[in-house]
Write a structure and sequence with these properties.
With 182 residues, the protein is an alpha+beta fold. It has a single domain, classed as Protein Transport Mog1p, Chain A (3-Layer(aba) Sandwich), CATH 3.40.1000. The chain is globular, with a radius of gyration of 22 Å.
Length: 182
């Protein structure tokens, strides 16, 4: 009798575990279950000899979109790195084009230049609307679905040079490629 009870209990436990596993898997797979933190460059990041950025905070799925965002700071600059994982290349290109279109709304005197980072790499530089900060933004896509934005704020008299931003962008691009996510 005891062996039947144990066997029945084993069947019940197995069924419960299997049911929990199936519910946990669910029919709907969304990107929020992924951890994309490893896509970002680890700190510290050095843009130039005087500015080493250390990592402050990480946000998973920024703005409710699959991806990751990380804030880095140096003594007088802030860098926010954001990588979004989008459904396809068209969505990634759309995000890049929308970001380019939105930048003139958040900065004055914006000037853009193409850079050799990822696909359609661009750096847009300008000033905050109140002229209290210099802004430099690197934008690019990689592969079929990633959109990356690096936004740096600094003293208005000390803008970030594209010459320093491009190598960091290339390193980020290589990290995305190596991850296999793109």
């Amino acid at each position: 009798m005891k062996s039947r009870a144990r066997a029945a209990l084993g069947v019940v436990v197995t069924a419960a575990l299997l049911g929990a596993a199936l519910i946990g898997c669910g029919g709907s797979h969304d990107h929020t279950s992924h951890d994309y933190i490893g896509l970002l460059l680890p700190g510290p990041i050095r843009l130039d000899p005087a500015h080493e950025f250390t990592s402050d905070s990480v946000v998973k799925d920024p703005g409710g979109k699959p991806g990751v965002s990380k804030t880095f700071t140096s003594w007088d600059r802030t860098l926010v790195a954001t990588i979004l994982i989008l459904p396809d290349a068209s969505a990634a290109t759309g995000a890049l084009n929308q970001a380019k279109a939105d930048l003139p709304k958040t900065m004055t005197g914006a000037s853009a230049e193409s850079v050799p980072v990822g696909n359609a790499g661009a750096v847009v530089s300008g000033m905050s609307p109140d002229d209290s900060k210099s802004l430099s933004v690197l934008l690019f896509t990689e592969g079929n679905k990633t959109f990356t934005k690096y936004e740096i704020t600094s003293d208005p008299r000390d803008p970030v040079s594209t010459d320093f931003l491009v190598p960091v962008g290339k390193s980020q691009d290589e990290r995305i490629k190596a991850s296999g996510v793109s």
